[in-house]
């Protein structure tokens, strides 16, 4: 089999990141959901977890004079050749999306929400399929409870635009980034409910580096606290974790109901019902198309294969990046054990 040039693989991973970044701009759409669709979720959680623990080990062991060998092991476990292109693609898409998607949402809110509602509805098959096998009755109940929880949270009234202090910005970012890594939970919608969505978009567009610095710092802290627990769950309680994620995504459709008032309240369908249904189908088709393209590119080894999130440090398998079959240290995404 012909080996794919590393540049082509890097471009593909950056495109994955761009899709995730664009999703984070849209209230009600979770970047974690898009990460699942494009096959990068486990890899990103794994990398973020090792990076967070590596930083914590550097600070803790460094202050105690214990050396940095354990921190280095976590840093080496990050698949930098995959995570960096995805991260760069995300950042670039957030900057571009803040300038392009925000006016689109304001000018065509009903149609835009319809497209993304179709996207989320179709993407439910991703975590459901990753669970593997038939769901048990308790799993169905747990999934529905997660859906109800998200439905209630996304029904909270939106706050008026705030003028937050930098410490408040950091705290909000810490919670928003936790939403980023949970499929079905939108960090943008969380910011919208506390009145910080518009100020954050304005900070990106205006290059307000003080605001953005506080936001990034809070996001790093929140990610470090939250992602390690999620990584452990994906390693040791993977099936039930994916069941809950599926429920969260189902409940998040409440935030994308096309007809809403200015405060997010649900309205009955309008005269444009036919057009809205067509846009929902378009959104679903986009997801199915992305999934088909991803499968084809993975088959041709033009995308980096996903690995199962593992909280324990390990030496990353570079052959998985360069196009060879992965070894046990970097297992590709597979059906979980029953």
Explain this structure.
- With 338 residues, the protein is mostly helical.
- It has one domain (6-330).
- 69% of the residues lie in helices and 0% in strands.
- Helix 5 (80-107) packs antiparallel against helix 6, helix 5 crosses helix 11 (197-206) and helix 9 (166-180) runs antiparallel to helix 10 (187-193).
- The two termini are 33 Å apart.
- The relative contact order is 0.18.
- The model is unreliable at 318-338 (pLDDT under 50).
Give short descriptive properties of this protein.
globular; 338 residues; mainly alpha; disordered C terminus
Number of strands: 0
Q: Biggest β-sheet: count, sense, barrel?
A: none
N-end to C-end Cα span: 33 Å
| Gyration radius over CA | 20 Å
Query: Looking at the structure, what is the overall shape?
Result: globular
Any idea how many domains? Answer: 1
List the secondary-structure elements in sequence, H or E: HHHHHHHHHHHHHHH
**Proportion of residues in helical segments:** 55-70%
Counting helices, strands and paired strands, the structural category is mainly alpha
Unreliable residue stretches: 318-338
Mean pLDDT: 79
Roughly what fraction of the amino acids lie in strands? under 5%
Give the number of helices. 15
Topology:
Blueprint: H1 6-25, H2 31-37, H3 41-64, H4 69-77, H5 80-107, H6 109-123, H7 125-131, H8 137-154, H9 166-180, H10 187-193, H11 197-206, H12 209-236, H13 238-251, H14 273-299, H15 318-322
Short description:
This protein has 338 residues and is mainly α.
């Amino acid at each position: 089999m012909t080996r794919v040039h590393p540049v082509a693989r890097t471009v593909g991973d950056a495109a994955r990141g761009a899709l995730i970044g664009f999703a984070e701009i849209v209230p009600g759409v979770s970047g974690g959901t898009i990460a699942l669709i494009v096959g990068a979720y486990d890899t990103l959680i794994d990398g973020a977890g090792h990076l967070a623990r590596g930083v914590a080990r550097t600070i803790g062991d460094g202050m105690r004079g214990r050396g940095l060998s354990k921190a280095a092991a976590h840093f080496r476990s990050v698949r930098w050749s995959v995570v960096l292109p995805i991260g760069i693609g995300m950042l670039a898409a957030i900057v571009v999306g803040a300038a392009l998607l925000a006016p689109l949402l304001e000018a065509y809110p009903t149609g835009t929400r319809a497209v993304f509602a179709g996207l989320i509805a179709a993407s439910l098959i991703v975590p459901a399929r990753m669970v593997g096998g038939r769901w048990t009755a308790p799993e169905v109940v747990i999934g529905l409870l997660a859906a109800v929880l998200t439905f209630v949270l996304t029904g909270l009234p939106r706050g008026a635009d705030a003028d937050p202090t930098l410490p408040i910005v950091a705290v909000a970012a810490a919670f928003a980034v936790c939403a980023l890594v949970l499929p079905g939970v939108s960090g943008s919608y969380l910011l919208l409910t506390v009145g910080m969505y518009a100020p954050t978009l304005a900070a990106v567009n205006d290059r307000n580096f003080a605001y953005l610095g506080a936001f990034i710092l809070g996001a790093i802290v929140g990610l470090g606290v939250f992602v390690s627990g999620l990584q452990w769950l994906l390693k040791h309680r993977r099936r039930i974790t994916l069941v809950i994620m599926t429920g969260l995504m189902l409940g998040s459709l409440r935030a994308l109901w096309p007809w809403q008032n200015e405060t997010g309240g649900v309205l009955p369908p309008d005269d444009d019902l036919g057009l809205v249904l067509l846009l929902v189908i378009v959104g679903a088709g986009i997801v199915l198309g992305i999934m088909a393209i991803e499968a084809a590119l993975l088959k041709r080894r033009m995308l980096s294969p996903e690995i199962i999130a593992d909280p324990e440090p390990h030496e990353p398998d570079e052959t998985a990046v360069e196009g060879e079959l992965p070894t046990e240290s970097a297992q590709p995404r597979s059906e979980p054990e029953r």
